[in-house]
Request: fold
Amino acid sequence: MSEAVLAVNFAGPHVAIQDAGRQGFMRFGVPASGPMDRLSYAAANTALGNSGNQPAIEISLGGLVVDCVSGQVTFAVAGGGFIIEHAGRKMGSWTVETLRAGERLAIRPGYWGSWTYLAFAGQLVANRWLNSAATHALSGFGGGRLVQGQHLTVTDARFHEDRVGAIPCPIFARPRPEVNVVLGPQDRFFSRETVEAFLAAPFRLTDAYDRMGVRLQGAALTPIASLDMPSEPIVRGSVQVAGDGVPTVLLADHQTTGGYPKIATVVDPDLDAFAQHRPRDLIGFRAVTPAQAIEHARLRAANTARYLAAMARPATGRCSQPK
Reply:
């Protein structure tokens, strides 16, 4: 069986191994974790012909540099508009190439996006916890954070010449200035004027941004009721407001329960693109009804399925960029 061995020359903060997530354990207090941008993670794996749950490396704005010590393996990078330096060439992300012994692969932030994914045509060896290699950042459980000097092994490493080339980046993968939200479930804790202020003007993402969530800067969303609600389950995309009136959008490593009111919930299809925003970017919120959110989710699921089906074919058989 062929294998490729990679040495980590440099890894920025939050660079870690992720798979599709640790499903079915939130009722036991275990976050799902998994990729911040699920679409890009799936695109990188699918472009290589991998399964939808294969471990990959999630790369933050800190970047990653690896050296191929031995073997060769075809890899894919999809996610934000990062810059790739490989074999004396510089290119953008959303691409498939092959890494060979003696070559260096450097992935650094480019013009847009906060996260990108490095997948391999083979099985990236990773620790597992509760049947998943997804890394929970606070505990370190799962595949774990990458550190300088670490060696990574890809077993069953494959060379896919027919898959080398560009990966079409769908329009819906890019961050946009407004996302859809469903108000509640605790919008009753806020005055009508506060809810209107939440929807009227954009908020700025702050540097308080990690895999658990991102705090926003903008209008104060001060609750009008005492914060005595019982702790309850929380979902990804909840816009949770603390007593100081500062909202936080909860993301991949969010806690499973909480007692702060949620003024709104970002609809799930918009979360991947939202996660690609960078600190100091502006974001606005547009209220939709639950029925509209369901229709949006169904449409996005259909578009994503068609896109990934096209990515599963070799590079020469892929369709043009989906709209």
In short: The chain is about 15% helix and 35% strand. Residues 290-311 form the longest helix (22 residues). The mean pLDDT is 94.
